[in-house]
Amino acid sequence: MNSRKIKLGDVFEIETSKGKSYLHYIYKDKTLGNLIRVLPSIFKEKPDNMDEIISQKEDYMIFFALPISIKMKIVRFVGFYPSDNFTKPEFMRTEHNIRGNHLGWDIVNTETWNIQFVEELNEKQKKLSPWGIWSGNSLKENIERGWNLDNWC
Prior knowledge:
Layout: E1 10-16, E2 19-29, E3 33-38, H1 50-54, E4 60-64, H2 66-71, E5 75-80, E6 91-98, E7 101-109, E8 115-118, E9 133-134, H3 136-144
Parallel strand pairs: 4-9
Antiparallel strand pairs: 1-2, 1-5, 2-3, 3-4, 6-7, 7-8
């Protein structure tokens, strides 16, 4: 993969202590970098029909340190699936904590970076992916511990 340029639509595998998980690179932001879809399920072996897995709704999307994760061999290229049908979400969310106290949530407009604070999330906001950039190790750890949008405080 070192000699191959990363392209929108590339699919990567991340090996965890629980099995293999798959990532789909769908968007390049000039500031935050690479947006990936974290695909559902963990597998013992690479599935035969990757198209079926990639076409499913993702568990969540994150901005991800993809080039360094490739260089560190945390993820590896396994294929390509067109990214045309996937777009950057309009809104994402992050916890609003002050001095370790959870006060609520910041809902971030991914285009303007305008932030709306809410104390409690409504059902639509609970489905928003995390705002920020994750490293390869943080993604791997979150997959291993079963992190998802539903169990995110």
